[in-house]
Write a structure and sequence with these properties.
This protein is of the alpha/beta class. It has twelve helices and 13 strands. The strands form three sheets. An eight-stranded parallel beta barrel has the order 3-4-7-8-9-10-12-13, surrounded by five helices. Strands 5-6-11 form a three-stranded antiparallel beta sheet, with no helix packed on it. It has a two-stranded antiparallel sheet with strand order 1-2.
Length: 339
């Protein structure tokens, strides 16, 4: 029903407006008990065999919602009811920011992709904290953190620290986002020395807590093999919990859509192979010494299984969820049970 009726209608309208409309429908519709129970019955797969323990956390299933969809922690309970095993909010910054000028979100329907140049638009970390206080540990939450656009790179660590401290009581794990292509100079923080400094700084804060929490690094798919080897070394040196592979790409290789040259990060099917290659490279070269969350171009159960076989412990959806709908969550979990 979603791909045959709902999606063709939604795709006739501006993608950012559709995103907000969908939020409103889900938020209000799932308040009705019968709607909530019907959707949970239709899409959620509850089976002990799907449970995973990864970096010390217990996941009810290995299929999560990637950061970017629920930036401001407005819909994490509703997304949980659709069958996701965990929800990653953000990217959050210390101060609210509008992000880049509109239009900034583009569907590439011929390529089953999306280009975005949102620019970390969010209401600020404190607004998210207010909503997360309502969770009470019911939904497993990841907090994806970044820096404000106006913060120079030499002061970026301070922004990440602010977000870390504010979110610490309310999220289960953290994701350090230095790989978005839509904040000027952000990807420079992926360079070896700045990245080590940032992660060491956060790990120092983490060690001061009564009980530390997993910190993961989200990396770009555009890194070279040499840079990926640096990532493995950095994970080992800083003792962070793992890696999320991968963020969106700046590559435009083999695209056919008319709007393929729009600036921003590309996600969806064009990223499927590359993100899996990165997962496999990291897993093989590190001897699977740290967990990897696989994300990028998962539009089918087969795509998810390939990432798990390549070395991912968990997977996340975003663009595939937009194109295929909530049935994709169920299909992946059912395929995992059969594999």
């Amino acid at each position: 029903m979603y791909t045959s009726i709902i999606r063709p209608i939604l795709f006739k309208f501006d993608p950012e407006k559709v995103h907000h409309f969908t939020f409103s429908v889900l938020k209000n519709g799932l308040k009705l008990p019968f709607v909530s129970s019907v959707l949970a019955k239709k899409y959620a797969v509850n089976d002990k065999r799907l449970e995973r323990e990864v970096f010390g956390l217990n996941f009810k299933n290995p299929v999560g919602l990637a950061a970017g969809f629920d930036k401001n922690a407005m819909l994490y309970k509703e997304m949980d009811q659709l069958g996701f095993g965990f929800i990653e909010i953000g990217t959050l910054t210390p101060k609210p920011q509008d992000g880049n000028p509109k239009k900034r979100l583009f569907r590439l329907q011929e390529d089953a992709g999306i280009i975005n140049r949102m620019g970390f638009n969010n209401e600020g970390v404190e607004a998210a904290v207010k909503r997360l206080k309502e969770n009470n540990g019911q939904v497993l939450i990841g907090g994806n953190i970044g820096k404000n656009k106006v913060t120079p790179n030499e002061n970026a660590v301070d922004d990440y620290k602010i977000c870390f401290e504010a979110l610490f009581p309310y999220v289960d794990y953290f994701v350090v986002n230095v790989s978005s292509p839509n904040t000027p100079n952000l990807r420079a923080l992926q360079d070896k020395e700045p990245l080590k400094h940032l992660l060491h700084s956060l790990q120092t804060l983490n060690a001061e807590k009564e009980k530390s929490k997993p910190i993961l690094l989200k990396i770009a798919p555009d890194l070279t093999e040499s840079q990926l080897l640096d990532i493995i070394e950095i994970v080992d040196e800083t003792k962070i919990a793992g890696v999320i592979a991968t963020n969106t790409t700046i590559s435009r290789e083999d695209l056919t859509s008319d709007n393929k040259e729009e600036m921003g990060g590309l996600s969806g099917k064009p990223l499927t192979s590359r993100s899996t290659e990165v997962i496999k490279f990291l897993a093989d070269k590190s001897n699977r010494s740290f967990p990897i969350i696989g994300v990028g171009g998962i539009h089918s159960a087969k795509d998810a299984l390939e990432k798990l076989e390549a070395g991912a412990s968990l997977v996340q959806l975003y663009t595939g969820f937009v194109y295929e709908g909530p049935k994709l969550i169920k299909e992946i979990n059912e395929a995992i049970l059969k594999s």
